[in-house]
Specification:
By secondary structure, the protein is α+β, with helices and mostly antiparallel strands. It folds into three domains: about 5-60 and about 150-230, 3-Layer(bba) Sandwich (FAD/NAD(P)-binding domain); about 60-145, D-Amino Acid Oxidase, Chain A, domain 2 (2-Layer Sandwich); about 240-310, no CATH class. The chain is built from eleven helices and 14 strands. The strands form four sheets. The chain has a five-stranded antiparallel β-sheet with strand order 7-8-9-6-10, with helices on one face. A three-stranded antiparallel β-sheet has the order 1-2-3. A three-stranded mixed β-sheet has the order 4-13-12. Helix 5 (about 180-195) runs antiparallel to helix 6 and helix 10 packs antiparallel against helix 11 (about 290-310).
Length: about 350
Amino acid sequence: MGAKVTALVRDGGRVTGVRVARNGSEQPLEARLVVGADGRNSAVARLAGSRKYNLTANERFLYWSFFEGADPGAEPAVVFHRWSGNFVIAMPADSGLYQVLALPELSELPRFRRSLEDSYLDYVCRCDPVARALAGARRVGKLFGMLRWEGFFREATGPGWVLAGDAGHFKDPSPGQGIQDAFRQVESLAPAILGAINTSPSALDEALAGWARWRDEDARDYYWLAADFGKAGVPPAVLPEIAQRLYQRGKMDLLLDLFNHRSVPAKVLTPPRLAGAAARLLARGGCDRRALLGEVGALITEEIRRKRLARHPRYVPPETSANAAPAVTGDHHAGGVLDEHFRP
């Protein structure tokens, strides 16, 4: 504790520990396996040369704070409200506080920078349930923010090292799945390590490589779902239509279970449901037929692209961000993350 990792210790091509700096001196710490669980700006990942792939850029930014004296009603609920390009999340928190998150589109960032407090309050009160809950409430503590991030997968393991949690995989925070992902990964990673740590290095590497394949498979569909939640603009018309249909038929749990891995996107946003939603909207009239069919076509095209990326990941060269340049294929090492974390 209280030490900074400055380098990885290697024996040939294998990581066998770390060098740490503490109290003005450095020392090596040896280990059969180095686990990097040090966040999305992971030093272990950087020192190991782990590559990022399949990056997604943020299209929104995030500010959140806490309120005392809020009145969320007799049966407080989690508010997850995305409408007409707006996006607000709110929920009861510890100590009687009420947490409210604003996720505006990046186009609104200049306004927030000019007048942060007023812009934040104005934005979250666009959501009627939140506006009612905050009537008479007082904001307490700091106003926290994340302005730039990128979603990514990193190569999860190599000789003598493995990455867990945000160090190896980070998705758009809109659906709030990061902590859940970390626990899911560790619940699977710990048995893989324990089953092979006392065997040969090659057997350990093989076990961790198997776990890495599981991680990508487990997280892939939810990664793209989170990116879709975080997109700017209005969602394709067929998606709220599918949600409304599930609600009318008493099957809303299928959609809600996407947040806890009890259902998977492919079994909720199915081709028959997509086709049915489009047919109902066309029959109902009042919509732009060409625009609607274009949205459906774009969804199908994007799904094909994502399946292709599952087979052939797109890696990024050094110092490349999803916000700055497109990903490229090839044997390049991953670079830095363009990220700002403001605490006014």
